[in-house]
Every structure is written in C-alpha cells, then in structure tokens.
Design goal:
- The chain is an all-alpha fold.
- It has one domain.
- 58% of the residues lie in helices and 0% in strands.
- Helix 2 crosses helix 3.
- It is flat and about 60 Å long.
- The relative contact order is 0.07.
Length: 96
C-alpha cells in the first residue's frame, strides 16, 4: 500500500530538510538586527517604539539615544508639516 499523496515529498532528504524542517526549527529565533545609529530617523522611531532591546551595557546611553531620536523625529515632522498638509489636502502623494 502506498502512502497518501499528501505525505509524498519530492526531492531528496537534504532538500526536504532544508525546505520543511529548518524553518520550523529556527523560526522562533529569527531576528532583524539594525544598526540604529546609521538608520534613517523614521526607522529609528519605529524600532524604538515597536522593537525589543536585547542588551544594553549602559542604560543612560540608551535613554539619551532614544531622546535624541525622538527630538530628530519631531524636527523632521516640523520640517515636513507643509508637505504633509498638502498631501492631506490633495488626497494623494504625487502631483498630477
């Protein structure tokens, strides 16, 4: 008796392992590492707001960095206020 078609895998064992088992094994540990000092301001704000700090040797430095990022973000928002108001008024980003 042959196994049901749903249990038949094409390819060889190493290919199947790489395709099906590795994602299941390593998915809980998948992370995105970002050098926040070199990242754009918008990404910095998103990571600070939604990300998770894994390790910090100096809590004061983390606090100072977060304050600087937020200050830069609010400065950017102030500089873009006219552009954003125009987008809201026109209902689109691009001219035309």
């Amino acid at each position: 008796m042959s196994p049901p078609a749903q249990w038949e895998f094409g390819g060889n064992i190493p290919e199947n392992y790489a395709r099906y088992m590795e994602p299941a094994i390593f998915a809980p540990w998948v992370v995105d590492l970002v050098d926040l000092a070199a990242a754009p301001t918008i990404l910095q704000v998103q990571v600070i707001g939604e990300g998770r700090l894994l390790e910090a040797a100096d809590a004061d430095a983390v606090g100072f960095f977060e304050v600087r990022v937020m200050r830069d973000y609010y400065d950017l928002k102030a500089r873009r206020a006219g552009i954003e108001a125009d987008i809201v008024k026109r209902g689109r980003v691009y001219a035309g």
